[in-house]
């Protein structure tokens, strides 16, 4: 991989709670360029606000991760502006509606598959051609502890996040010889828009399942920083669990 100060990083799903934190963390490290993308232009603006000014050039692009051409356009933006792409973070994700399997609709499943699975698949498809030419690259997928443990009433979310973990393994094996590493991060729970409809009692119950209590985006960004750096050069196909002990029992 390039030296830290020459790195070019693109982040899909850079709006929202975790996306903003990852963007600010990586922008605060020395970089050559950063491309921030999200389906929501307003959330991208919020991410840019308060970004550290370290001289890294920042581009923004509105893109829906479920549409390959839009993801490809984000990668092209990085290549046209900065000449290469060293790290791609695929962080967009959606929670499924609360319900047991027999109460959920085909649309509930399709939405989870489109965003949570096809988003990371499209990210890999879009980044691999340039990274293969460079013979280097790091692709980081946001999965979840929901992909490691079974949650009742959230089957599309759990199943798609489990698939993201396996996608990282398969892609790691396929692209290791091309110098491309593929890993995922499995966060435990931190408060975000995903929890907006939950009553306080439900949040307390979720918190109680985390031995170290609920997390915050600040607890997670170090894993992304590691995977985006050369310190992780021998790490591929991994699911890095950062969950306050949630999955330990
Ligand atoms: N909050 C948690 O407790 C938690 C735990 C584990 C994993 N995660 C994962 O972390 C990631 C970020 O979640 P968050 O909690 O910050 O939620 P969030 O809702 O704040 O952020 C999600 C972002 O994804 C974007 N997005 C949604 N659909 C998109 C699409 N089709 N194309 C492009 N962008 C799209 C949204 O606009 C939003 O900015 C998700 O993948 C989520 O599954 C969250």
Short description:
43% of the residues lie in helices and 16% in strands.
What does this 3D model show about the protein?
With 249 residues, this protein is of the alpha/beta class. The chain has a single domain, classed as 3-Layer(aba) Sandwich (Rossmann fold). Helices cover 43% and strands 16% of the residues. The chain contains seven helices and seven strands, in the order E-H-E-H-E-H-E-H-E-H-E-H-H-E. The protein has helices at 16-28, 41-48, 68-82, 106-134, 155-175, 200-208, 217-227; strands at residues 8-12, 33-38, 57-62, 87-90, 137-142, 180-187, 239-242. A seven-stranded parallel β-sheet has the order 3-2-1-4-5-6-7, sandwiched between helices. Helix 2 links the parallel strand 2 and strand 3 (57-62). Helix 1 runs parallel beside helix 2 and helix 3 packs parallel to helix 4. It is globular and about 50 Å long. The model has no long low-confidence stretch (mean pLDDT 96). The structure holds nicotinamide-adenine-dinucleotide (NAD). Nicotinamide-adenine-dinucleotide (NAD) is lined by residues 13, 15-19, 38-40, 43, 64-66, 91-94, 115, 142, 144, 187, 189-190, 192-194.
Task: Tell me the overall shape.
Answer: globular
Number of domains: 1
- Main-sheet strand order equals 3-2-1-4-5-6-7
Order of helices and strands: EHEHEHEHEHEHHE
How does the SSE layout of this entry go?
Layout: E1 8-12, H1 16-28, E2 33-38, H2 41-48, E3 57-62, H3 68-82, E4 87-90, H4 106-134, E5 137-142, H5 155-175, E6 180-187, H6 200-208, H7 217-227, E7 239-242
Bound molecules: nicotinamide-adenine-dinucleotide (NAD).
